[in-house]
Every structure is written in structure tokens, then in C-alpha cells.
TrEMBL record:
Its main location: nucleus. It comes from Dromas ardeola. This is NOL11 protein. It comes from the Eukaryota. GO terms for cellular component: nucleolus.
Amino acid sequence: MAALCESFTLCGLGPSGGVGLGGGLLALEPGPDPDHVSDQKPLGCWSVKHGQIITCPVVCNFETHEYIAVHDDKVLRIWKNKDINLDKVFKATLSADVYRIHSLPHGGPVVLFKGGGVRTLDVLLEAPQQEIENIISDEVIKWSEAFMEGQQPVLIFATEKDGDFFVYVQKLKMNSLHKYKLEQQELSKPLSFTAYIKNQIITLLCLYSNDSVYKVLIPLQQNSEEEEEQILSKSLLLKLSVSASVLKGTSFVVLDKDHIAILGSLAASGEESKECLTIWNTKFQTLQTSKELPLGTSGQLWCYEEKFFFTHGKVLTVMMYKCETSSLAAAVGKLKDSQTPDVSSFVNWNTLADEELVVSFQSQQSVALKSESKMTLRSKRNTVAKVQPDTLSVGQILLNLKDASTTVFEDELRQLMSKAQVPDFQASIGCVITALIKRCKTNPKYYPRNFLLHIVQTRDLSYSLCPDLMAVALEKKDVHLLQICLQRFPDIPEEITYACLKVFLSISEAYLQRIDVNLESVICYIDVEFNNKEVKTEIVENGFNAELEQDIWDTKITKETHPTADGELCPVGAQKAALLNAVLESAYSEAFLLPHLKNLPAQQAVLFLRYLYYLYVKCSEKINTALPGTRSPTISQIMDWMCLLLDAHFTVMVMLPEAKELLSNLHKFVRAQVRFYSELNKIEGSLQELQRRNHQKDSQTYSIEVLELI
């Protein structure tokens, strides 16, 4: 049995990547590290100069952790994560046009040229201008893939000429090349290819325009005496039709030995076709599951780490899936297994009506549910107490609770969350939060703040599992919940991060005094003004401050503190500082955050810069340039946000009189630090020499030596 699970947006696409513009994406390739897409944060972004065009998908060299790209067909670029400007990285101009670069985990990058020539990257870099042979003459490469068979890199590519299709297999270490001709199919042609290798046999799958998938077997062991061009026979693997509907596939991937996923348009006679993602069982010739994609796609599909990647509208979407061992019972939807994934856990309450929610339940529930009338379903929801939750799926429980009273509703949800054995537990928690948020939207007076806070603090959640939670918290100005979400969610969009920042800066200090906020990130270093008297709350050497202990309960915190000329006092109260620290620690992409940051009101931008300057000075007071306490921002985070804020508002700040002194102090402080580190760099060599001499001397002897530092 196969199931499509939850999906989330990985990133937006520019105009050239939009659907319907003929561009799409060149490709999607795995990176050097394990899966990072769940974080939904770009780790790097590079671009070529205006007029240059990237003509080959960028790949990662898994051995060196370098990135390799080709622009303008012949110009090779190689760089690392720390490089920023591609103009300054390694460049080599090749003698022939490149079709594709394939990177193998243990075999290194392999370069395939448009003429059919193949070189490993190491050999190519020894002489970039070496002559590349033209093997395929007038043929055009349509697809290529590379594998490792033992220690042997194997490259396979398909070409087309005058309606005929050819397949080439090349073993690089043996320098052997075999050419095959694909058996023709009457009135149809291949649209897409994929392949895998097992037991010295390449299995080539071809998606044809006659709505069928064919399988071709190519043995790697070939006699050199055989004729140069053999004809490959194919066998029908799957017919893409179910009932009266036919799937017009555009691309596909292999999931396991019995399942393939196909992206295309599903059309029934007399109805408009709908783009969808489908999973098919090739063993039993059945459609296992499908997902409609109403915003349209580019027709491209990739699969890595049990995740599908495809464009949907103007975004790149990631969708998880699950495939189980193929059996006839699972293929026809009759498998009764308590461990079967609860598909209803991933139902979107905001887009499905009640009856649609019921239809989306597991197949073993569907026959009984369809036989019930709408009146029966309503009566079922009205008698929540009679339902046995242990026998129901998560989706059914949530549906039955929609009309329950607030007390019953929350009690049932707490019981549901206490069952650790529930399949797909994290997704179930996300559905619980979605149900709570939906009730908040339908009943504005209902807001279970403590319940939501408890869930976020005790469960490992993410923004993508409950995307409406922070929106409701922003609407309610629940700054404590927003603070916890910023600290715990790894995938918060930049738009939401900016919205939190704006709310934190706009709320008055007097209001924050009445709010419960986590102060662990500021309690050890922040300076607060008590009745115009400065009290430093930094931990003293013996852990006790008599003056602070005596006065803290008898004094009243002023509404707002102001920095002195040297920036010693914190410009905001402890509560606001703790909230701003949560923003500073959240992950973001500069390219996506900067446009939002430019909309920050000028007065709030100045206040935020004052606080960042205060933190910067505080960090510089310590030898290790680190703030004390837990969850305190690092100096790198502080400096990055200062640069972002100045980039977004520099022109405005130059014009504001109240920002003039702040910018001047910041400039002086940075200039002094640059000078200090410059002086340290001058004596770096002498200090290294001193360290080297100390290692060479006998530690038991005593001596005094004078070193002259020049």
C-alpha cells in the first residue's frame, strides 16, 4: 500500500521558474549533507552575471563538498559554501559543450558532453582544453543517468534522431561503450526515462505517449564481438488507465521494486483534465493514490529521501510519501493493518468539507462510512460521549468533536495527545492544533492560550505542521507563544519573522510588564534603570548582590530606558529584549527577509538598531565575545541583523536627527575594533613563534627570555 502524506512549500520560484513560461527548473540535485529541506531555509544562494546563462544543473562533489556548474555551455565553475561571488571562484573554459554533470557519492563527478563524449572531472581539469570526441554525430541527447556498480562508474544516456531512439551505456574505468537501438512503438514515442541498476543489469523504464510504461533490460556484461548496434526489445510494465480515466504522464520516478510515481494530467471522458501526482503498483497494475494539483506544474518530478519535489504554481513543493510491502490485499485497498498510516491525519480542515473529510479516511473505514447517510453522520457528531476513540482514526475523532462543547473538546484532545502509540504522532499533533485554530477562527472569543502553549513547549513541532498557529498568535498579540514558537520552530517563513519583530517593537513596555515572558536569554546581562538609578543584573563573582537584593522589591521599573552616549544602558525593557532575542535567534534567508525589513517603520528601526548596538557593545566587553545566559544571541547573529537593518534603512537613518548620534557611535566603535584586531594581526606571527619555542624547550628548566616584537 502507498500513501501521499503532508506537503509543504520549500521556496518560491522566480519568473524563469514559473509554470507556463517554458522554463521550469533545470534540475534538483542532492546536497552534500543529510536532508535539510524540512528546515525550509536556504543555506546558500549564488548567481551569475547579467547575460550569462546556467546551462547545466549544478551538482555537488560529495568528496570535496564543492559545487560544480556550467554556464554558457562551456564555462565550468567550481566553488565552496564560503564563496560568495562566482566571478572570483575557479573557472575553466572547455573545448566542447556540456550536456550534464553527474555526481556519484563514491565515484566523483562525471561530465557528459553534447557530442556523447564522457570525462571524469579530475581528468577534465588536468587539461580543460583537451579535445572531446563526437560520438553521436547528428543525434540529440534526451536523458542521462549515472550509477555505481561496485567500484565501476556506469553512465547511460538516450538520444533521438529522426524519430529513432538510441541508448548508450559506457563503463568509464574499462573505457567501453555500447550502443543500442530502442525498439519502435507504433504511433507513440518515449516522453521520459528513468533507470536503476541491480545484479549487473540495467532496468530502463520508458514513459510513452500512448499512456503506457515499458521496461527494457540491458545486461552490463557484453561480448566485444557482438555487433555494434543491437535492438532492445521492451515489455509493457503498466497501462496508465483506471476505470474511464487515463493519465497523460509527463515524468515519473521509481520508488521501489513494485511502485512508481507519475506526474501528469488525469482525464475522464467528457471532463476537463486535472494535473495530479499518482503512485502506481506495477506488480498488480493498480492506482494506489493520487493528489490533485490545481495550480499546475512544470511537468517535472524528483524524488529524494522519501520525498517528492515538484513545482506547484509559483513555488517548489515537497510532499512526503510512504510505500509498504506489496501485496494483493494492499493493492486493492483491503489490507487490515493497525500500523497502516492514518491518511486522515493529514487532512486540511480549512479546505475540506465535512463529507469530504469522511471520504478521505482509510480504505477499511470507507465502505461503512459511505453507507451512512448525512443524518447519521450528524447524529454521530452530536453524541461524542458514546464514541470509542480507541477504535477511530485521528481524523474521525476530530470530525466528531467539531460541535462538542469547549470542555469536552479540549479534554478529548488531551486524551488523544496522551496516546503515544498513535501512528504518525507528530502529524496527529499538527492536526490537533489545526482543529484548535479552526475553532478560534469560528469563535473569536475562544482562544486556548495555555493549551496551545503547553503543546508547543512539550512537542517537537514545526511551522509547516501548524502554519495558522503563529498567524492567530499575532492576531491575539500573544507574545509569549510567539516567543516560544520562534525558539522552537526551525522553518518559520521570513514574512512571519518580520511580523513578530514588528509586533514586539510596537507593544508598549507597560503592557509587557503584565505579560509572562521567558527572560532566560537576558537575565544574566541586561542593564535596567530603576528610578533613574542604574542597576546591573549581571551575575557577580560570588553570586550575590546585596544592594540588588535589598532594593529590587521596593523599586518600580520605569516604562522605558534610554541609552547613554556610550551605549551602556539597554534601550528596551527586559521583556522586550527577551522577545527581540527570540527574533535574532530564528533562522532566515537574507534575500527573503530584506524586502520585509524595508517596511519596518523608521522609529521602530532606530529602536531596534539601538538594541543591537547595545548587544554588540556587551559582547565586545567579554574576552570570548559571548553573552552569558541561555538562548542568548551570538555576536555573529547580532552583526548580521545590524547589517540587514542598515541595508534596509540606511538612507532613512541618515536623514533622522535621532539616529545621527547612534550611527556616529556605531561607526566609532567599529573603527576602534578594526584597529584593535589589526594590531593583533601584526603580532600574530610573533605569538605563533613564541608558542613554537615553548613547545621545543624542556619544561623542567627555568629561564627568562626577552623577545622583541617588531
